[in-house]
Amino acid sequence: MTDEKILVVCAANVCRSPLAELALRRGLGADSPLSVSSAGVRVNDGDPICSAVASLHDDAQWQAQAQAHRATPVTIEQIEQASIVLTASRDIRGELVRLAPRSRDWMFTIKEAAHLGEGFASSAPDRVAEYVAHLDRARSRAVPLTPSGGVGTRLRQLFGGRTTVDPTSIADRHGSRGHLETIAEVEASVATILAQLGGHRRHSS
Predict the structure, then answer these.
(1) Which of 6, 18, 31, 102 has the smallest set of CB atoms within 10 Å of its CB?
(2) Which of 205, 170, 190 is nearest to 27 (CA)?
């Protein structure tokens, strides 16, 4: 039995990170030895999950977890005890690095992990540790994004982002017209991560 832990962090812990948490749990399955949790860096402690995320699926397990969720502020202990930390955006990753610098090597944005994890496959009990090593090697080989042209443009194309948008981040559009786009981005990236970790994505019920 492994005690590997996946921690997902966004700003308020009501939309992006709890969606990723619930989607990862759903995809990994109830019998998975991996634990998944979420937290936020600017939290109104105890806030419920957003209604759009709660209504994505109507099965009992999703509904129970969505209704039970309450926004929680991230702690240094959570970060240091996690096997991997997935953040909604690069600026949030930066905040966590400043909070817990010793853990920076296992911090990635959700979209970054999905991209850098290409080609990873393992069924080992400690596959998250192997996954982090794979991501870290891929990150060390990557050329940093540039404002325009060259490799930076290519990476933006791979991530599907526009030149003015950070391609490694999922924007916080909670309450705006782009909210559904944010949800779709989280779901797509999590589905890719699940495939890399040997999970699966269940169809909507």
Answers:
(1) 31
(2) 190
Place of tokens 């996954």: 131
pLDDT (tens digit per residue) in 84-143: 999 999 999 999 999 999 999 999 999 999 999 999 988 888 899 999 999 999 999 875
For residue 203 the two structure tokens come to: 């169809």
Q: Residue 140 in contact with residue 134, Cβ under 8 Å?
A: no
Rounded Cα–Cα distance for residues 183 and 4 (Å): 26
Residue 37's φ and ψ, nearest 5 degrees, are: -140, 170
- Model confidence at 156, pLDDT cuts 50, 70, 90, reads low
Which pLDDT score is estimated for 1? 42
Residue 192 identity (one-letter amino acid): T
Strand partners of residue 86: 8, 108
- The structural domains of the chain, with segments of one domain joined by +, span 5-141+171-197
Class of domain 5-141+171-197 as given by CATH: alpha beta
